[in-house]
Amino acid sequence: MSRTLSLFLLALLGVVNIWIDHAFVQDIRKGLEKRPPPFSHYTWIEDDVPERFPLSSPRAHVHMSIEESVHYAIHAPEAPLEWLYTATAHDMGNTHLGPPQRPRIGVVALAHQQHCLRALRAALAADEVPKGDALHHAEHCLSFLRESTLCAADATLEPGDAFARNFTQERVGGERACMDAEAFYASMLRRWEEWVEVREQTAKAV
């Protein structure tokens, strides 16, 4: 092999190596850009707040079996308590974030969705057609859940014809890779406990 060819191949390898390093760094940078900034990044004034509720150590892609359940009925005696169990403890979906001196309150979308499901179950279980505020609430919840499903846009292929399936006999409809719901409930509880502690300390200081 001639010296000229050797130098050319060496230069080519150097260029390829630089290109690979650059692509690798770009991938890392894009990954870091997708990560939410720390809370210290925000001023908590007007719209300068996080867009998403932070979960504590969530697992990635938690598998959930989509199946018919004997729980979460409409008219069963235990239905109200079973549906109430989907709510977060104490706070009903509200969370306090930001500095203790001026905390910002927000409602996590998942908690809002669960609230709407409970409201629609109660409306279906009622003996009369909802009217007035109850009707407006039901219409709001239907619209909110419609928009939420469009936002999530789950493109998972369900086996067979899901609309022709005998749900009494074929009770399992596959699996989904989902958000870590347990981490959500645990994070909401931790935030509530922190907020209660702040309130107690503030009351003692007054």
Strand order of the largest sheet: 1-4
Query: Can you give the mean pLDDT?
Result: 82
- Rounded to the nearest angstrom, the distance between the terminal CA atoms is 86 Å
Q: Strand-residue fraction?
A: 5-15%
Query: Any idea what the shape is?
Result: flat
Q: Over all CA atoms, what is the radius of gyration?
A: 26 Å
**Strand pairing plus helix content: what structural class?**
mainly alpha
Number of discrete helical segments: 5
Largest sheet: 2 strands, antiparallel
Count of spatially separate domains: 1
Total number of β-strand segments? 4
Low-confidence runs of at least 5 consecutive residues: none
Task: Assign a percent range to the helix content.
Answer: 40-55%
Sequence of secondary-structure elements: HEHEEHHEH
Organism: Ganoderma boninense
Family: Belongs to the ustYa family.
Pathway: Mycotoxin biosynthesis
Pfam families: UstYa (PF11807)
Give a structural overview.
The structure is a single chain. With 206 residues, this protein is mostly helical. The protein has one domain (50-155, 165-205). It contains five helices and four strands, in the order H-E-H-E-E-H-H-E-H. The protein has helices at residues 3-34, 79-84, 109-125, 132-152, 181-205; strands at 62-67, 94-97, 104-107, 172-178. The strands form two sheets. A two-stranded antiparallel sheet has the order 1-4. Strands 2-3 form a two-stranded antiparallel sheet. Helix 3 crosses helix 4. It is flat, with a radius of gyration of 26 Å. It starts with a helix and ends with a helix. GO terms for molecular function: chitin synthase activity; oxidoreductase activity.
